[in-house]
Amino acid sequence: MIATKYQSSEYMDTDEFPFWIRRFYHDASNVPPAHSHEFIELVFVVQGCAKHIFEGQSYQIKTNDVFIINPGEIHTFQIESGEEFEIINCLFLPSLIQDSLLKELGVSRSMDYFYIHPFLNKSERFHHLINLGEGYSSRFYSLLEGMMYEYNKENACYSTLIRLQLVELLIILSRIYNEKKSNIHHPFSRESENQLLVQRINGYLTRNYDQKISIPTLCHLFNISPRHLNRIFKQEMGRTVVEVLHSIRIKKAKQFLLESNDKVINVAIKVGYDDPAFFSRLFRRMVGCSPGKYKENTYSSVN
């Protein structure tokens, strides 16, 4: 699927306040092109129904559905003739939700919709959409309207209010997600608890790969000892947490090398490495060639 790629800088101040929100009305003659983006997109269906074309597959969506699109995922909508479709689009970068706030919350079940659900396989994500029932839809919609009001008015401390409102939205979604999950899964065991913790941490790494991440930071955020952290990653993923982080970053680096004209030093910084020499050595060890050679070889094989 050929897709337009939207850059974060087209919508938001990526350094100071990486956030954007807007209401859209669509019909059969007015739908966005197939596209991907660098940011996270949270979509709430205010009213109407449509087909969501996500990564080449079609899923029906309707009033009060909520879903998250990750960076790099391609999607669009199809709307039947005569139908109208209203959504609220909330765009942001993971850095909007600061570590200090996450620590205060405790990155546990309260944020599973942000750190676990978006990284499940496509079928599980979109065949089991969250649809807000009577108890949640009006509260959720009210929060989104509050965020739009603050965003447009830019009154004192508006960015702080929006951050808090977004976290409240994600906690509500995580609560619903875990309620649905508990209805269909077996009771927790120590093994499943460790698996969930690894999924949460892996989601955090995937969301924040471009930030400075250390073992002490992860232990502080997830209230876990370094020894236990590496033990459960070895058990669940067969690798240490540092190896998993390197893998996420190198995968992203390969993508940036092919999709941009950035120099290797800039790609290193974009995926979280301050030392370009270390990045190049790591890339060579994991990929089998230097970043520059990887780009050159890939272009040669395509052409």
Give me the CATH architecture of the largest domain, please.
Answer: Sandwich
The backbone outline, from C-alpha atoms, is globular
Query: CATH topology of the largest domain, anyone?
Result: Jelly Rolls
pLDDT averaged over residues: 87
Separation, N- and C-terminal Cα atoms: 19 Å
Helix content: 40-55%
Biggest sheet character: 5 strands, antiparallel
Explain what you see.
Residues 199-297 form the HTH araC/xylS-type domain. Pfam families: AraC_binding (PF02311), HTH_18 (PF12833). The chain has 303 residues and is an alpha+beta fold. The chain folds into 2 domains: 4-185, Regulatory protein AraC (Jelly Rolls); 189-303, Homeodomain-like (Arc Repressor Mutant, subunit A). It is built from 12 helices and 10 strands. It has helices spanning 99-105, 112-115, 122-127, 134-153, 158-184, 190-207, 215-222, 226-237, 241-259, 264-270, 276-287, 291-302, and strands spanning 4-6, 19-27, 35-37, 40-47, 50-54, 57-61, 65-69, 75-78, 84-92, 130-131. The strands form 3 sheets. A 5-stranded antiparallel beta sheet has the order 2-9-4-7-10, with helices on one face. A 3-stranded antiparallel beta sheet has the order 6-5-8. A hairpin with a 2-residue loop joins strand 5 (50-54) and strand 6. Helix 4 runs antiparallel to helix 5 (158-184) and helix 9 packs across helix 12 (291-302). The longest helix is centred in the middle third of the chain and has 27 residues, at 158-184. The radius of gyration is 20 Å and the shape is globular. The two termini are 19 Å apart. The mean pLDDT is 87.
